[in-house]
Structures are given as structure tokens and as C-alpha cells.
Amino acid sequence: MAELIRLENLWKIYPLGPGVTALQDISLQVEQGQYIAIMGPSGSGKSTMLNLLGCLDRPTRGQYWLCGQNVAGMSENELSDVRSRRIGFVFQSFNLIASSSIMENIEVPMFYRGIPRRRRHVRCRKLAEMVGLGDRLHHRPAELSGGQQQRVAIARALANEPTMIVADEPTGNLDSQTAAEILDLMDDLHRRGRSIVMVTHEADIGRRADRVVMLRDGRIASDTFNGDTHRGNP
Amino acid sequence: MTATHKILDVLRLAVRSLRAHLVRSILTSLGIIFGVCGVIAMLGITEGASYQSQLYLRELGSDKIIIRSVNPPEEDKASESRRGPNVYGLNADDVARLQSNIPDVVRCVTLHQSKKYLSFGTKRQTVSVFGTGPELGLVARIRMAAGRFLTVSDMVIEPVPKAACVMPASLARRVFGYLDPIGQTVLIGAEPFHVVGILAQVPQAVEAGMGGRDECVFVPDTVRKRRLGKFTLLRAKGGFQFERVDVSQIILQMKDEEAVSVGAGIARSLLSRTHDKADYLVKVPMELLAQKRKQTRLWAIVLLVIAGISLVVGGIGIMNIMLASVTERTREIGVRRALGAKQADIAVQFLVESVALTIVGGLLGIAVGLLGPWAVDRAGVLPFETIITPWAIVVPFLMAVAVGLVSGLYPALRAAKLDPIEALRHE
Question: Which residues in chain A touch residue B345, judged by CB atoms under 8 angstroms apart?
Fold first, then answer.
């Protein structure tokens, strides 16, 4: 399988006072189509890791190869472009734009990709139907339940056919039954070949992933593979 | 995807977010509305005023010097005896001196004005009788509604006790009603005159003074001297007073505008030497025109300053609201950045929003600003019509748009510079 992510000796140090080291010497390789969960206690560097993998932030030291492209040295503009083409974000608090309709929310990534309006609308409809909200396109986010809002967010994340989905505790704000539905949807996406990186602190969510990377104090504490159908790198 | 598509998309986004805060948007653009509307209204009024005065002065003619007798102020007369006729103003000697000393005089016309009764049948009314000559028709812009103006042959005093007279159409209508005025005989004082011509209008160059320009009758000055006399009986405080003015008005037509300024100077110094009372007035339309132009320019500067202040205040309001909007939508900015928006996309979005605010304000300002002069015209408050030139609309509007750009720039840059991670964490 083709390589999706390769981290080489990645460091992230925040230049506050003496400098807070959030990530130390991380090396990791992820193949396309993998579903990987990043876990660890708070303060272990999960969020920093997610921001780096999602190309929202740049490492202090080290290399980050995303689909063969070195992202570590990219400019702000180039990073925006990579996010637009390769990454679909799903957040814990959904982060839908409250004043816009569901349709308008889903089309945001396509808007910045420069896709014409008519094609955006066609795709919006298809995505909304896929997450089971085809009849809610003209509603406001506030008129939807939490689970439905997260479905909209997933539809939005898929708008530009990203290489991977980066999800930050996507079920953190949902009750367990709704959470299970969202996770089922993620599983479904994974089965269709989508790569997923998910940050979570719940072990039973981690069990749905192919692979669990445990972080502790900014280092990889363990890297385990679930089942035997997937082979990871040693 | 074409650039127009992208522009339309961004505009749609801006309109949507402004509509989300409709009241706030309108309140914010109020400063711009007032600024634009004030400028348009004031420009319309001043443009109308300056057009009116230029029209008036052009009618007078820039090649003329007009010298008029005026009743001197009371304190100047105090030394004289109050009995006997009040004698003041210009006389034949003045006319001769002016004509022989001022170079490049093309024509010189004098007018003698007196108050008389004009009667026709049972109708009787006071009129200003102007004794003058046919040259007035050449010097002033005279438009005849019917008949002819005074001619050289009218000046000859014939034994036949019937002389020519000319009056404006407005007076003719009042005196003769539906009769054809040409050929009718009227009495001025006790003397018969027959009407030879009707003026469409009394020319601006004739200073009608009290009574207005509707109640004038023009007669040959020679006939006036012989038959109507030199004195005018006036009703004064506590009785009657005789007044004697030899020449009420002199109109000098000059060769060119340079001759006008030279001639005006000579006329002033000549008259000041022979008159020790301020019983005359030298009026130069060209000078008045220049003065009016200067005045108009001053007005324009004052207006520009006022407009500038209101637009700056409006701009500050817009910057303020845009900054608030950036803070309020920090999280949205973070989301948009995470979903692929570049810094430039965010900057453009906020800039377009602030310009859209001022465009809406500018358009509303134009609407209200056009309504103002229209209402003023309808109400007839001003003695002239307001004039709205295309520039008076375009310039304030462009100024408003520029204000939107300038005051939106800082908030837009601030929004663009936000760190996406920080912005996403913002509550």
C-alpha cells in the first residue's frame, strides 16, 4: 500500500519562556487507507500531534511527508492549499457556521477550492444524502441535533474528496448511542478506503481503529495494531 | 471557474453575513448615509444658486459698467436744509465727463426714472417711468413680445401731443386685459402716450428699484423732459417730498472685458472727485461674477470639509463594527482556515463586507440625498431650482466606497493574521 504519512524525528517546542516541548522526536509511518487512533492522557501532546498532522501547524524540527510531499517547510499559503486538497476536519464541537444553512456549511471547503456554484450544490446534495440529511439542506445548524450536526461536519469534511480525515474527539459532545452512530459512519468511510486519523481518549473507540498510537509526555509510548488483517510498519 | 464567479460568490457571502445582522448593518452605515446625502443635497443647492446668479449676471452682460443714483444715507443729508426738494445723484455733467475720460466706450445709455400714474379708461396705477433712448435696445438684451422698441424718430418732439411708449407684457396684461395693447393710448400723469411695443421682459440691466420690474414704462427721454418734468413727488415721513434726480442710471457698454476693469476704475475715481456724498453706485457685472465664483469655491471647500468629517466619522464606525465582527467570528475564521481558506480569502471576505456596507450606505445616501433637493423644489423654499449634476452623485458615492476600503483594511488584515489553531480554540 502507498504511504500516506511519514514523520521523521518530529519535534514541536512552543517558545514560551524556557520552551515547552510538546512533541519529542516522533517518527511514524502510516499507509493509505489506515484508520489510526491517537490516544493518551491530557497533556501528552495529542492536540499538537493532530494540529501537525492536519497541517494547521508546522513542526519545530523534523520532517513531515504527506503523500510524498514535505509539509514541514511549507509557507502559510501552501499549507492552506494542502488542507484544502488533502484534509477533511471533524471537530469535537462540530464547528458549523451558525448563521449559514447546512448546504452553505457543506460547501465551504469547495468554495475555497474554487468549485463553481452549480457543481458545489450538486455535490452538497449528494453528500447530505450520504450522511442521511438530504432533506435538511436549508435548515440552520441550531435546528439539528448534535448527532445530525456532526453528520453535517463529516459531509463537509468529505466535500473535496480529501486524502484523509482528521477527527478531534468527534464523539466527545455526544451521548453514547449517537456516538456509536457517528463511529459507525466513520467505520463505513474507512471500509470505502478513506484514511482516518482520530484523536480520542476512549479505549473502546480506539478498538474500532486499525491501529492505536499511545502518546505520553510527547513521545510515542506504544503503537499497537488491532486484529491481523492490517499490517503496520514495525 | 472564472473570476466573475468568484467575485459573485464572495459578494453573496458578504451580503448574507450583513443580512444576518440587518439592524446593526443599517445603523453602522448611517454615518455614510448622512455623509453622502448631505453632500448631494448641499451640492444641489449651491449648484442651483451659483447657476442662478451666473444666469443673472450673464443677462446683465460682462461688458458693462452700470452706474446708478442712490438716495444717500440720512446722516449725509443731515447738514442740508430739510426744506426744498431732495436733489441727489448723477447729472448730465457726470455723463459727459465719464464719456470723455473713459476709453473704449462703445455705447452709453442713460435712464431717468420717476414715479407716475398710468391710466387707461378707469384703470389707474403707479408705474416707474423710464426716460431713455433707442440705444437701450442695443445695449441691454431686449426681447420684444410685440411691436417695436423706441426709435430715433420717437425722440423728436412733435407738436402732436402723442408720444411713443413701451411696456412689459406683464403690465400690458394688467392694464389692457384681452385688448391688443399696440396702438392703444394711455395717460402718464396727464400726458397721452401710445403704446408701440411690448417687451417680453424688462432687461436685467435696467435697475427697476422699488415697485419691481413688472411696473415699468419706457418713454423717449426728450419727451419725458418736456412733458413730465424733473421732479417726482414722494410720500415721505409726515408729508410729501419732492425729489430730483437728473440721471437715474448710466449704462456703459465697453469694447472688451479689459476695458471694463480699466473703465470701472476711472469711473470710480472721477465720481468720487465730484460727489462728496455717497449718492451713486458703480456696479460691474464682471466683478460680481468673479466674486460669486470665489464665493462658490469657498462654499465647495466648506462642504468638502463637512463631507470629509462625516465620512471619516462613518468610517470609524465601520472599522469599529468590523473589528467587533472579527472578534465575534474568530472561531468561524478558524474553521474556514482549517477547511482550506487562505489568509487572502479571509482578508477579501472582510474587506468586501465593509465595502458592501458603505455601498449600501452610499446608495441609501443617494436616495435620501436626491429626495432632499426634490422636496425643497416642491416646497418652493428657495428662490431657485436645485441642480444635481452627475458628479454630485458619483463623487460622494466613490468617496463612500473608498472609506469602506480604508476602514475595512485593518480589520480584514487582523482577521487574516489570526492563527487558525488559536482561532479554533476561541470561545
Answer: 112
